[in-house]
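wait is this the right file?? whatever heres the structure
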């Protein structure tokens, strides 16, 4: 399986109001529950007013469009990174999955994934 390195920094944040989120940006994930409104976006696109934020994330994108019948993709990726003692933040879209790791672990995560048989592009 191919994983693509995304070459830009990401921020994970909690925002008070959805009007602060610019959905016209090309990399924006929004999650809303009864408890919070979360945002993952390029660091440069993070709203100024956040309730909490954590900068310094980087991401790998699964290059294939994943069929919903496929199982264990995130489990295998997270197991490889857990074995390397690297924490993750996972985001899924209709098409594919994204694995975020902290910037300081990005090179080590790529090495661990390649050693496990993933092709990094």
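ok assuming it is, sequence goes like this
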């Amino acid at each position: 399986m191919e994983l693509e390195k995304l070459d830009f920094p990401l921020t994970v944040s909690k925002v008070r109001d959805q009007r602060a989120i610019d959905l016209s940006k090309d990399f924006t994930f929004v999650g809303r529950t009864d408890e919070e409104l979360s945002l993952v976006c390029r660091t440069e696109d993070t709203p100024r007013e956040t309730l909490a934020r954590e900068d310094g994330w980087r991401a790998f994108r699964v290059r294939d469009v994943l069929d919903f019948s496929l199982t264990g993709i995130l489990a295998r990726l997270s197991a490889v990174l857990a074995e390397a003692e690297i924490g993750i933040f996972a985001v899924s879209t209709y098409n594919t999955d994204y694995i975020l790791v902290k910037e300081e672990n990005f090179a080590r995560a790529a090495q661990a994934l390649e050693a496990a048989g993933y092709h990094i592009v």
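The CA atoms of residues 45 and 91 lie 18 Å apart. so i think its the right one actually
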